[in-house]
Amino acid sequence: MQTAAEAGDWLQTLGIPTSSTKPLIGDALAIAMTFRRTVYDAIYLALAVTSGRPLLTADELVANVVGTRLPVRWLGAVVRERVVS
Questions:
Q1: Helices (H), the chain
Q2: Is the pLDDT at 62 greater than 60, yes or no?
């Protein structure tokens, strides 16, 4: 069994890009207030907007609420697209 520190070290070896949330706070607060979402959700949405990449989420409610105005895709729709094609 790994310790949390060992798991953290291993994750860093994967080269997964990370982003600081501090520069996203202003946009996240605006998104949270506009769409009545939590700041937790809005941080991910702000990252999607600023990075120009879509947020892929399993949260269908979030995708439905913001998906027409922000770059969000619901995982269930993506899976269906792959099954159909």
A1: 4-13, 25-35, 39-51, 60-66, 75-84
A2: yes
Supply 31's token pair: 């998104």
Looking at residue 17, its pLDDT comes to 86
Long-range contacts of residues 37-40, Cβ cutoff 8 Å, at least 24 apart = 37/62, 37/65, 37/66
pLDDT of 1 higher than 60: no
CATH number of the CATH domain containing 47? 3.40.50.1010
**Which range of residues forms the domain containing residue 26?**
17-84
Question: How many structural domains is the chain composed of?
Answer: 1
For residue 6, pLDDT beyond 80: yes
